[in-house]
Amino acid sequence: MTHHHLRAWIAQATAVIAICAGVSAQDVPNAAPPGLAPEAQHAIAKAYPDALIQEANLQDDEVKYYDVQLNDGGREFLVRITADGTVLEVETYEHMKALPADVAATITAALPKGAKVVAVTKREVRARIRDEHVVPCTPPKTRYEVEYVGESARGSIEFGPNKAGRLVVKSRSEETVGEDGDAEE
Question: How confident is the model at residue 5, as a pLDDT?
Answer without folding.
Answer: 43
